[in-house]
Amino acid sequence: MVRLIGGVGRRSDRLVALLPKLCLVLVVILTVGYAVAGGIVRPNMYSDSGWGFVGWYTQDRASSFNHSLGPDLSDISREVEGFMSTWSPGQHLLPGLVEKLGMSLGLAIVVVVAIFSVLGLVGWFALYRAFGFPLQTAAIALAVMTCNRFFNLSFTNYTGGEVLLFGVVPWFILMVWRLRNLRWFAVLPLVVGTAVLVVAKLSGIVIGAAVVGGAAICGDRAWLKWDTVRKLVVAGVTIGLMGVIFYFAWFTRGVTAASISTAAHPDGLIFYVSFGVSSLWSASTSLLDLASYLFLNPGREVFQSITPIAYAFFLPAVATFVFTWIRLSASHGEYLRFTYSISAAMLVFFLVLWMAGKSVSLEERHFRIPSLLLFVGVVHAFVTSRSWLAGILFVAVAALSCLYGLAAFVTRTEANTRYPMGDRGFRQLSASAEAVAYIRTIDVAGPDWKKTLIFLPSPEIALEVRNSRSWANHADFETIEALKAQVYRGRVDRLYVFVQKRLLGDGKADAILRSFVDYPIDGWTMVPLGELVCFYQVSK
Length: 540
Known about the structure:
single chain, two-stranded parallel ribbon, alpha/beta, disordered N terminus, 58% helix
């Protein structure tokens, strides 16, 4: 009996020793699999990224970097130039540069996503180890992360700055962790590092400030030490420089999400706190995404909004963070103070924006970076606990997250095979094959390219236009009142206006056509193109 127990124990010990290697092998296999599938099938693109690429392809005619050209609303035969302030440049700059090497944009996107995914995996692993967590904990955290929906999403649906931020943030945080004594020589690398985060995604300025602030107060009994005052001064100067540079170099030059107003949630602060805390808990495992899929899916909605989900997640989130603090406070106190203060700072920042009625969407992705910082601590607290209940809960949540992530990747990849392949080598999510083919027939190169304007219902479709001028709106997401308020004056020789067929019956298509006020409303010719319809007027 003793021999049997001893044999089982030895086999168990070997399995535990082998677990980190198995996790890391899984990470490699999945990442390579995502990249290969993405390269074969090719991803589609969300409209935010589409806007960036629309601007990118006009920059050769613009006066300076990050400026784009679009039609002059007072005379559509002319172009006007504007600074692209709404989107960070990295999301279109990096794939655009790779495309210039001779590959299609779709393949260039997969290459960039793969590079930054690997860069991020290595960076998060190095950061987790720098926090003092054992190999087993870091490997398990990385394996769950790689199975996750948020990690594999960009291989099928390009999300722009999200994947770039995933790749560069852990390296920035690792630098701050190494420099957490905050001597004056650290100011320059911290400011430069934050600039890199902003190039990846504009929210990088918030992350940079929160991380530097967290470094100033994470020391043991920091509130009792005079040296903390010096650290706070250095952190304040650093954050101040970040803010001033960002404000004058970017924020004042155009529209961002933080400068657009919208209606606040009726429950106010109670809801926003619940949503923020829930997102800090769920963003590392995409659980809020899963709940949205289950309960808010169009056509079979169980709830009318995300509100009840945020409230339901709040208590498990608080319980998890309290449990983690209790379990790790003695062994990883500095890590806890660092990550909890970063999370709190980012939560407060978003609470201020939401309460001020700014148009920052209610998505867990805004809290993904602090959630990933917290995640390794949660993993360690649960996998080292002697409580069988804690172990079962962790395995259940991790398994649910992984199964959802892998199933979602397979589903999205299969769906992409049914979307038409665009001329630039990525899948068109919103355009029919007939519309893509028709655009190629009207997008004719030649000396009169400026005399053709092709107006499309989403910016990523506009990327099919290579020779003529193009522009887009967001008719699906705009109210009919907003569409009626849009006015385009002037004429071109050839004007093509594409709209979704479903907009013909709700008045939106008519509002779009009437916005071209110098064209007679009865002069349009209609061409049906699957789910899209093209209206055109051509001068004789």
